[in-house]
Amino acid sequence: MTLAFEPRRTALVLIDPQNWTLELGIAPHVTATVVNNASALGRALQGAGFVIWTRAAFSNGYADMLQVPVDMALRVPESGLSDEALAFNPLLEPTPDLVITKRQWSAFYGTELDLQLRRRRIETVIIAGAMTNFGVESTARDAWQRNYAVVIAEDACSSINLEMHEFAIASTLPRIARVRSTREIIEALSTSSAAPALFTPSPAPRRRSEPAARP
Question: What pLDDT is stored for residue 76 in this prediction?
Fold first, then answer.
């Protein structure tokens, strides 16, 4: 399926690009690859679309973290996550238009993400980040169920291991999204005069002027 965007109706939702998630030994794409590709996507939409980063964080004592009985619970330090662990990777760019704090996998549940997207008349969401089969997939499912067109930037995502990433990319996400490489997504964005050239940092482009109203 041909990939086409209207940048003004497109948002990048970058899932949890924080030190504590990106330093867990992710695969198959290492942290540097995820950060570089996510930054390239952000630059491609800067000034034309809407760039959002999400942050997973919890109150003191993890009071607002899900703590129901499961077979494989999330392991977190008893003393809490440090400010450094919760911080975004310092090499990420550009500065996002909005930061959403979430307390579960999906960036939609219990947050204002849907409101912020709809108020800006966003129709397509590009999703990337960590982890592919957890935060990325959960957010993609919720976006699809809310009637957003979803695009997954495969090489700007990673998970705990190769098998988890590959299963989501090959078996689950294609049923709710279009899965493409960062290069393919940016090339599609660059076909619009509202988007900068492929992987080239540049000043924020101007919006095209609206035609004058006829009397």
Answer: 78
